[in-house]
């Protein structure tokens, strides 16, 4: 539809000029896309096992380079939980080659951006700069990854910063609900722990634990150096060989490493934190989802898009597409809801996050949400599948806007699956998904499956687990 509107606008704009005006003939502009081999992702593995992957865009004036590491909070033990995130904070506090001031001044003088983040399975350090400054950025990334000083004074300063960050996270209800959802779904397992770690761990983490984490996890076989933008692949490989050849080749198979690679077991269960001072009920419900490399990965995303999202504060609230959003809006059951499909290396969580201030109608809201899940197993129309596929494709393409987003996509895919699907390949996979595929997925993954429930706030009227579980096999 959008392309037809665009064509119509172009035709209207190309009508004959008014008398007295002389326009030059139309010519093909310089923006014609070029299907050159250099536009594909290239990958090289160094002798020490480090993977170098890049997406070269010859007309880009900036580049993003970063290191994706196959280690996050999942690579910790219960005693060291929080170490990966703690290290992320210390990365920019000075190395044996650069003081913190020199590091900050160098990045500032380049006009570059340097950042890092930690997730349950990955730690990422990346920089965005002009193409000419990429060699310096790679040198900085290599320096902070291999030569961080981890001074006691910096550790103590960051300890207070992280404790304050922990307090802020505890005020964000969505973060709290999803942390509890992971904790109950993956009880007593690494995937169930928080990224920041418990406060007692943050207060007691030592330099020894930090250096041990680097030694055990920051190894070449678990790293990918990624470049996206105007940096040619050959140049990035040369920079990798210059800066990363001293990395240890393999990780020691410690107890924490073996546990992090052990498949997580999903446990049907619930956790409720009642706090009547919170005016809303905030509830997440999930079944075991799919991993990054599961054949059902994109089908799960299409099914999620069919359930959809809703926010009554938006102007288009009555017309947000999904059947569940229309029903929720008509009966004023919720402030908002968000369906999700979160994937990890071996498992995932597929579910819905509900927020409502209609506290006496929480049971209705949950009932209709779970009834919609049951419907996916029985009756899915072609129209809603096509709508969901269009939304999913648009969302994926829009998320790849810019070199940093492209680098993130390459790094995440290669570190988790070993290769990268291009947007075109992903689009073709999504195009081939049918309503039969969605119903088959729902029959295997949703119908009569155990659920994990996390509820925070005014949740007195949330039914007991057995009642909620019984709704997972309902004939519409």
From TrEMBL:
Protein name: mitochondrial processing peptidase
EC number of the protein: 3.4.24.64
PROSITE patterns: INSULINASE
Family: Belongs to the peptidase M16 family.
Primary localization class, coarse: mitochondrion
Stretches of the chain forming a coiled coil according to its record: none
Entry's localization field: Mitochondrion
Keywords: Hydrolase, Metal-binding, Metalloprotease, Mitochondrion, Protease, Zinc
Function statement: Catalytic subunit of the essential mitochondrial processing protease (MPP), which cleaves the mitochondrial sequence off newly imported precursors proteins. Preferentially, cleaves after an arginine at position P2.
Reactions listed under catalytic activity: Release of N-terminal transit peptides from precursor proteins imported into the mitochondrion, typically with Arg in position P2
């Amino acid at each position: 539809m959008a392309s037809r509107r665009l064509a119509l606008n172009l035709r209207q704009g190309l009508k004959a000029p008014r008398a007295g005006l002389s326009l030059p003939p139309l010519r093909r502009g310089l923006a014609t896309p070029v299907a050159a081999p250099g536009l594909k992702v290239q990958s090289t593995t160094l002798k020490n096992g480090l993977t170098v992957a890049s997406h070269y865009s010859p007309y880009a004036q900036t580049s993003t380079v970063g290191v994706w590491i196959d280690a996050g909070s999942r690579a910790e033990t219960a005693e060291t939980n929080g170490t990966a995130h703690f290290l992320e904070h210390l990365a920019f506090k000075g190395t044996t080659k650069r003081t913190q001031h020199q590091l900050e001044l160098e990045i500032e003088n380049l006009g570059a951006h340097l950042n890092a983040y930690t997730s349950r399975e990955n730690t990422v350090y990346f920089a965005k700069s002009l193409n000419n400054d990429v060699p310096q950025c790679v040198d900085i990334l290599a320096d902070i990854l291999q030569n961080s000083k981890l001074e006691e004074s910096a550790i103590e300063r960051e300890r207070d910063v992280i404790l304050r960050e922990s307090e802020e996270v505890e005020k964000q209800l969505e973060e709290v609900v999803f942390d509890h959802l992971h904790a109950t779904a993956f009880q007593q397992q690494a995937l169930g722990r928080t990224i920041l770690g418990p406060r007692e761990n943050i207060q007691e983490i030592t330099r020894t634990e930090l250096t041990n984490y680097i030694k055990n996890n920051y190894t070449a076989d678990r790293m990918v150096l990624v470049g996206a933008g105007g940096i040619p692949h050959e140049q990035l490989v040369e920079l990798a060989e210059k800066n990363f050849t001293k990395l240890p080749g393999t990780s020691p198979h410690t107890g924490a490493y073996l546990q992090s690679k052990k498949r997580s077991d999903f446990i049907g269960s619930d956790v409720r934190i009642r706090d009547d001072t919170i005016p809303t009920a905030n509830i997440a419900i999930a079944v075991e989802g799919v991993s990054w490399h599961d054949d059902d990965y994109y089908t799960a995303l299409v099914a999620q898009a069919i359930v959809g999202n809703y926010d009554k504060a938006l102007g288009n609230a009555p017309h947000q597409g999904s059947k569940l959003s229309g029903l929720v809006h008509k009966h004023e059951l919720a402030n908002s809801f968000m369906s999700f499909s979160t994937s990890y290396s071996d498992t995932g969580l597929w579910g819905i996050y509900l927020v409502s201030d209609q506290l006496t109608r929480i049971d209705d809201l949950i009932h209709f949400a779970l009834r919609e899940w049951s419907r996916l197993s029985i009756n899915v129309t072609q129209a809603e599948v096509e709508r969901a596929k269009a939304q999913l494709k648009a969302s994926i393409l829009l998320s790849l806007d810019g070199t940093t987003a492209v680098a993130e996509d390459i790094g995440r895919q290669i570190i988790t699956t070993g290769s990268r699907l291009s947007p075109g390949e992903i689009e073709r996979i999504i195009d081939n998904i049918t309503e039969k595929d969605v119903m088959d997925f729902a029959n295997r993954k949703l119908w009569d499956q155990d659920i994990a429930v996390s509820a925070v706030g005014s949740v007195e009227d949330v039914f007991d687990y057995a009642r909620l579980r019984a709704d997972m096999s309902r004939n519409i």
